[in-house]
Each structure stands twice: as C-alpha cells, then as structure tokens.
Amino acid sequence: MNDNELYLCKLGQGKPLFFLHGGPGSNHNFFLPHMLPLKDYMELILYDQTGCGKSKERDDQNYSMNQEVDNLEMLRNIRL
Q1: Contact, 39 vs 45, CB < 8 A?
Q2: pLDDT tens for residues 27-37?
Q3: pLDDT of residue 43
C-alpha cells in the first residue's frame, strides 16, 4: 500500500485491539504498561506511527494523515 516501515508490537490472542499513540513524537510505549493486562483477553496491536519511536521517517515531503490512515488500514487487513 505504501513504503513505510513501521515498528509493530503484538501481544496476546483473540479479537484485535489497535492502539494509536498520537503524536507527533510519541510511541507505542505510551500505552503499553497500562494496557498490558488486556493481553489475557485479546490481541493487543501497538505500533509506532511514521517517524515516531522505532518506525522510520519518510524521505519525501508528502507525509499526510491519509498515509497514516492507509498504514492503519493495512495493519487491520493483514493483522501481521
């Protein structure tokens, strides 16, 4: 869908629950300690959005909210 390289953290099993950390400059660790008990009931999917945490920055000047929506949709569809 796009060429972004995103850092992904998956924990647990069951129905997926995605976490969007907000930002800019934040990362998936923002939620992790507080949400960790939920891994016993569902699959937690935390990822660092483009240019945040362990995810790479884009080289071009075309970064957009639409690209972040595309990233989330890609993850939702493939559930790595």
Answers
A1: no
A2: 777 778 888 99
A3: 94
Residue 68: name the closest of 27, 22, 15 by CA: 22
Pairing of strands 16-19, 43-48: parallel
Q: pTM of this prediction?
A: 0.78
Whole-number Å distance between alpha carbons of 67 and 70: 5
Alpha carbon of residue 72 to chain centroid: 7
> H or E element: which one contains 77?
helix 65-78
Q: Which residues contact 61 (CB under 8 A, 6 or more apart)?
A: none
The answer to whether 43 touches 13, Cβ cutoff 8 Å, is yes
Q: Is the pLDDT of residue 1 over 50?
A: no
Which residues lie closer than 8 Å to 72 by C-beta, 6 or more apart?
A: 18, 20
